[in-house]
Design a protein that fits this description.
The complex is a heterodimer. Chain A is an all-alpha fold. Chain A is built from 21 helices and no strands. The longest helix of chain A is centred in the last third of the chain and has 38 residues. Classes of the chains: A mainly alpha, B alpha/beta. At the A-B interface, helix 16 and helix 17 of A face strand 6 of B.
């Protein structure tokens, strides 16, 4: 009996998945073989492990604890600018880390706005470096994400339940006990797990705000083993440790989480009748808005003055970043589109694989592995930019698949039989049906991939030599050289570039789209 | 002649048996209770379902192992018969050239088909700007240019109002008669079957029975059909 033909050819997608799997598994193998396990973990390694877990735990608990009242306030209040604020809560996801760090330094740093105010009152300035700085940055990034995840839980409560509660005369406390507490019990574990996994792998935050024996994460340890000691064995050992952590945390996140943080439909306000204290809600929303907007405005304000005199070195780095982002985005689509098409035809194994990719996503570990693999053959620094573009694409792949897959499934299900009965070949179906009908999703995924690549400060730090740098790395170097004004100009440039790339691609995809 | 020879069609944990001959240029209704397998029968003929055993042939040529696009069969589904992002012209053009560009002659043929179904000025319109009846006409124009010898209708007009549905069925009958197409249509409405199809296939109790005169079947229905007709 013939196997049922499919409207799309799954083999390119299977090939793409095999390539990605080979890259990840190959680098992991290289790391594992190179790791000097016999040497065991030294005191500095244990300290790195402890600090990694401490900062991730604190960041996660704070982000989620603060997000619950903010989400509650957003769920039950309707005000002008509410949907803009909720959209803004999605922004930190694509915001370059180094840009946020510069903004946070402007606000909370030693010579930042708050320290200036404290100085007026005769108080000592804030100190942002170390554990609390790392936690602050992580809360800045993850409070919005946690808010969106939890808000989704609130939106999913059927409005009839609130109506019933109002009918029964429940007060706020009773509504919490009857409706909201069970919902939170369902949603919060997933949010905790996702954010914990993200905090484990955020290299750039630890690089800029951490450091020293008391504030070094595992990833930072990998980087230092590379750049300061060139101790590949130790880098590989730490990579193995980091990998164990991320896979465990990623697995938990996959198990516990249900939705994605950037889903649609979050702008529906729930009608409820219990009133509640307006001013506490206002205070929570204002707190979240200030935490989000203050550092961003700081970047814009302080960058503007330097932007007119942007050093050539930054312009060159920006051009490199744009080129890397373009290459990375093209590669991302070349991998994600065929994979989405193959999964849509029912290749379940690929779904699993893409989940595993998300789990083992630590660019520093993959970077270490690639470095070990490339070094015997040729000079790794010559490969800094291609490797960066490739690793960025692989990191963005799980997100891109999440965006593309529902649309790909719908098109295959809805139009597959028609295409087959018309004798349309798989390539024609892809070109004339799938791609035109998925333009909006392709644009969104491409925008996300381009922005993430543009702002990435990870694997490039391992590979680059003094001659070459992407814009985020150049900004980091300027910060290290205490050229803050140039760094701030670079941060504004990077903010404009990555948000601009996202906007352009996302808009381009939705241009003249019809049902 | 379309021949289903000892066929057994599996659909999940449900299987339908069919053994029948359908003569060329006939119009046959497929009737029976919901969930009995009317669509399954059509999908097997169109090539969307595998046979567990048996074979399907047309004019003596074995179709069993051919993919849907290589069979002499055009099918209209309950929905999804047009690509929403393409114009009427492009949608109909797919019937001639599913994989390439239309030549000027082919464009003229598409225009003629659109004119034949009563939409001479609608070539540039997209489905969303057409009424339900007009969308059905575009799909029929495509069937016309496809020139397949068998046309299967799996209730493509179910969403239309009663008057419009009758209008569409009359158009289908006209077109089928003009082109000598063999027509099989799933029908939930006994009146449709009576009006359009002299013969009818009853699908009930995991079996599709050979075509018999529609009038006889409906006037003296077997028990399975009687409880369905009420």
């Amino acid at each position: 009996m013939v196997g049922r033909a499919q409207p799309v050819n799954p083999w390119p997608g299977i090939g793409a998945a095999a390539l990605v799997a080979a890259l990840i598994l190959g680098t992991l193998l290289a790391v594992a073989l190179r790791a000097e396990a016999g040497r065991g973990l030294g005191p500095a390694d244990w300290a790195a492990l402890r600090f990694t877990l401490t900062q991730a735990t604190l960041s996660t608990l704070l982000s989620v604890a603060l997000a619950i009242p903010v989400a509650r306030a957003l769920a039950r209040r309707r005000f002008r600018g509410r949907s803009v604020l909720i959209a803004l809560l999605g922004a930190p996801f694509i915001l370059p880390v180094i840009v946020a760090i510069l903004g946070l330094l402007q606000v909370f740093g030693r010579s930042g706005w708050i320290s200036d105010l404290l100085g007026l009152a005769g108080l000592p300035p804030l100190r942002i470096y170390g554990l609390h700085g790392v936690v602050l940055a992580h809360v800045f990034f993850n409070l919005p994400l946690a808010t969106r995840l939890i808000l989704q839980g609130w939106q999913e409560v059927p409005s009839e339940r609130f109506r019933l509660a109002a009918q029964l005369g429940c007060d706020g406390r009773a509504i919490f006990r009857l409706i909201e507490a069970p919902m939170l019990a369902r949603v919060v574990p997933g949010a905790l797990a996702v954010i914990f996994a993200l905090c484990l792998t955020s290299f750039a935050v630890a690089l800029t705000l951490g450091g020293g024996p008391r504030a070094t994460t595992l990833e930072l340890g990998i980087y230092q083993a590379f750049t300061y000691d060139f101790d590949l064995g130790r880098a590989a050992l730490l990579s193995t440790l980091q990998l164990t952590l991320t896979v465990a945390a990623g697995y938990a996140a996959l198990r516990l989480s249900r939705g994605d943080g950037f889903g649609a439909g979050l702008d529906r306000a729930i009608r409820r009748w219990d009133g509640g204290a307006v001013w506490t809600d206002v205070a929570w929303i204002a707190l979240a808005a200030v935490l989000l907007l203050l550092p961003l405005s700081a970047v814009v304000l302080s960058g503007l003055s330097g932007l007119a005199r942007t050093p050539v070195i930054l312009v060159n780095a920006a051009l490199i970043s744009v080129a890397v982002a373009i290459a990375s985005t093209v590669l991302l689509l070349l991998l994600a589109l065929p994979m989405a098409a193959a999964i849509a035809t029912g290749r379940k194994g690929l779904v699993e694989l893409s989940g595993i990719l998300g789990l083992s996503a630590s660019p520093l570990v993959i970077g270490t592995g690639l470095f070990i693999l490339i070094r015997p053959l040729t000079d790794p620094t010559a490969w800094a930019l291609p490797v960066t573009a490739m690793v960025n694409a692989v990191m963005a792949l799980p997100f891109a698949l999440r965006i593309l897959l529902p649309a790909a499934r719908e098109n295959v299900q809805r139009f597959g039989p028609l295409a087959q009965s018309l004798d349309m070949r798989p390539f024609a179906f892809l070109r004339r049906v799938m791609i035109p009908r998925m333009r909006a999703q392709i644009g969104f995924a491409a925008g996300l991939g381009a922005a993430l690549s543009m702002g990435d400060l990870g694997v490039i730090a391992l590979f680059a030599d003094a001659e070459i740098a992407t814009l985020p790395l150049q900004i980091y170097r300027l910060m290290g050289a205490y050229q803050m004004q140039a760094a701030q100009a670079g941060a504004l440039l990077l903010l404009l570039l990555s948000m601009g790339a996202f906007w352009l691609l996302d808009r381009g995809g939705r241009w003249h789209v019809e049902a | 002649m379309l021949k289903l020879d000892g066929c057994r069609i599996a659909n999940g944990d449900f299987a339908l048996s069919a053994d029948m001959e359908i003569s060329e240029r006939s119009t046959v209704a497929v009737i029976g209770p919901s969930g009995a397998g009317k669509s399954t029968l059509l999908e097997a003929i169109a090539g969307f379902r595998d046979l567990e055993r048996g074979k399907i042939s047309w004019r003596g040529r074995d179709l069993t192992d051919l993919p849907p696009g290589k069979r002499p069969v055009a099918m209209l589904f309950q929905d999804g018969n047009l690509f929403p992002h393409m114009t009427a012209l492009q949608n109909v053009g797919l019937g001639l050239r599913p994989n390439g560009k239309l030549s000027p002659d082919e464009v003229a043929e598409v225009d003629a088909a659109l004119a034949r179904v009563g939409l001479p000025d609608m070539a540039a319109r997209k489905p969303a700007t057409l009424s339900g009846g007009q969308q059905s006409r575009v799909a029929l124009a495509r069937v016309l240019v496809q020139r397949r010898e068998i046309l299967l209708l799996d209730e493509p007009f179910a969403a239309l109002g009663p008057a419009l549905k009758v209008e569409m069925l009359d158009l289908v009958r006209e077109l089928a008669a003009e082109t000598g197409t063999t027509l099989m249509m799933v029908s939930h409405d006994p009146e449709d079957a009576r009006r359009i199809c002299r013969k009818a296939i009853l699908v009930a109790e995991n079996t599709a029975l050979a075509p018999q005169a529609t009038v006889d079947l409906l006037n003296d229905p077997p028990p399975a059909l009687r409880s369905y007709l009420g």
